[in-house]
Design a protein that fits this description.
mainly alpha; ABC_BtuC-like; 69% helix; single chain; Metal ABC transporter permease; transmembrane helix
Length: 318
């Protein structure tokens, strides 16, 4: 009897990674999808799929957990500002790293530049609100447009001038999860764990600060330091997925799990835990669907599943 061929094709013991920027997170070369869904256990033996799965699950857990505080503070749009504003920072970090002889496309470099740019965008938004009659929503729109426009100009300039090793930078817009390397996944795990540890240690303080800032001040808490810490955690939780989901869709991964968890959770703690679990689970499901069932972009699949679940949860709890 002939043995059935495994649906996972290997090249020298590991799947060949896709070209940078190709497919916006589609299944990598070396993963073969036959006439039906692929057995998840077969896919787990594939290097590219494993990296995509681990990275996406970590991003989903961190974004979902921290997204609760953008939701309860009614600042969900701030995640959109941070995500779009991260583009010029990531490009700037790429250029500086290239001048220093480093790999500008590595995730640690991208996260550093994107985080700095996101913090600057939030700072500009708050400055506009404090010195002008513009509403917070309008101020966020101004900051988002300014930073994202600058980022698109920079992206075009880099592409037109043929800067060395710039292939794949356009993948930051919609993500390209299939290009995650071992270094990228290790970076996501370390950064994600640090953010979750900070969240677990300061959960009570963050909760009081979000619902009653004046009460937190009267209780003797360092409100300014806590605000900076919470803002920094939200920024990192948002930019952490630029290479996995993409900055255009990242806001959905931050907001949707919190919106779903709000329909069922009775406390902020349970809301954080449920949102983090939902983000991780749906990200894992989205990776499998995009690679093992249909060859589709990973980021959009994750976002579509989350959005559908959010709509269903709202209808069910009406």
């Amino acid at each position: 009897m002939r043995r059935r061929r495994s649906p996972v094709l290997r090249t020298c013991g590991r799947a060949r990674p896709p070209e940078h920027g190709a497919g916006h997170g589609r299944a990598a070369a070396g993963v073969w999808v036959g006439d039906g869904p692929v057995n998840p256990l077969d896919l787990l033996s594939n290097h590219t799929y494993s990296m995509t799965l681990i990275g996406s699950v970590v991003v989903g857990a961190v974004a979902g957990a921290l997204g609760v505080f953008t939701y309860v503070r009614r600042e969900s749009l701030i995640a959109d500002v941070v995500a779009h504003a991260s583009l010029p920072g990531a490009l700037g970090a790429f250029i500086v790293a290239g001048l220093l002889g480093l790999d500008g496309r590595s995730l640690p470099v991208i996260l550093l530049g994107a985080s700095l740019s996101g913090v600057l965008a939030v700072g500009l938004t708050r400055a506009i609100v404090s010195i002008s009659p513009l509403s917070p929503d309008v101020s966020m729109a101004v900051s988002l447009s300014l930073f994202f426009g600058a980022g698109m100009m920079g992206l075009d300039a880099i592409a037109s001038r043929g800067v060395a090793h710039s292939a794949g930078l356009s993948g930051l817009l919609l993500g390209n999860a299939a290009t995650l390397t071992v270094l990228d996944v290790a970076t996501l795990c370390v950064v994600g764990c640090l953010v979750l540890v900070v969240l677990s240690l300061l959960l009570k303080e963050f909760t009081l600060l979000s619902f009653d800032p004046q009460g937190a001040r009267l209780a003797g808490l360092p409100v300014r330091a806590l605000s900076v810490c919470l803002l920094g955690s939200i920024v990192v939780a948002t930019v952490i997925g630029v290479k996995t989901v993409g900055l255009v869709l990242m806001v959905s991964l931050v907001v949707a799990p919190a919106a779903i968890a709000r329909q069922f959770a009775r406390s902020v703690r349970s809301m954080v835990m449920l949102a983090g679990a939902l983000g991780a689970a749906v990200s894992g499901l989205g990776v499998y669907v995009s690679i093992g069932v249909w060859q589709l972009p990973t980021g959009p699949v994750i976002v579509v599943i989350l959005s559908l679940l959010a709509l269903v949860s709202v209808v069910v709890k009406r």
